Amino acid sequence: FPVTILIVHLMKHPGHMVFVVGCPRSGTYLLSSILNGSGQVAIPTETHFIPHFWHFRKLAGRLETPAARRRIIKAIFIFLKIWMARAEEERDVKAVIRHSLLIIEKKTEKIVISSKNFSEIVNHLFLSYAEAKGAKIAGDKSAFYDSVPLDKIDMASGGKGLFIHVIRDARDVCVSWHRISVGPKTISEAAKKWSQHVETKKTWGLQHPDRYFELRYEDLLEYPKHTLRRVCAFLNIRYTNSLFKFHKLAYAKDLSKSSTHKLLSRPLNPANREKWKRNLTRKEIQKIETIAGQVLKDAGYKLAVVG
To answer: DSSP letters along 189-256, please?
Structure first.
């Protein structure tokens, strides 16, 4: 029962963030929608700023000073506005903004006062969002095209976050990812990127076993109650049947209004897997398994063509 976070409850890590991570097209938005539906966790739409702003944080000046903190927070909100205008152009941007960090822009001064460094800024941004949503746990979900080292995200958020790693069969990821405009241009490129995503995250998990938990997309579909009970136990939140009503909530409904996430408006469907058996040729399957075969096997998947 393999697979994007860990194994120490938030009661042992009060106030620390939860990160839902994985290769694009692996179900990270699905899990985020389900967790948001619990009413106990608040995960906004993709932010993407954490690793980038961590790398360039010194450009804002000495973050020990309020002026520098104010500058970088302002820059983060500007980035989010630009990002959303581009990334959400297929959806109703005004509707999606309701589920983004932009709703707490008015709390900038409070965050400036409460923070003393970049990681505290990150935590207070997301905790403010969780507070606005009436949740006790703050989280982030950003599925990057190229694999971003979890160490970078971890350091940027204070080095104490929990990571849930969602893994989906590479062959289905390649089918889905290859079809969208921002996806890899070839099946081979998609297989390579999937392998990099999964390997680097698994490696981090082995180094931080108390803060990493793996969740297979297929297990979520086939054994939803058992899988979500494990997730809830990990996060120390209540398991309720309301988790399965995620598709009726505004978060999933608004995000489903695009060709890339339209299934968010529907209940979990056990049949939404192994699409590669219908959509890939034997040659394409062989290509993916040749490139990603060992990583697939390590994640618990059986190969169909390559021995």
So the answer is: HHHHHHHHHHHHHHHHHHH-TTBEEEEEHHHHHHSHHHHHHHHHHHHT----GGGGGGGGSHHHHHHT
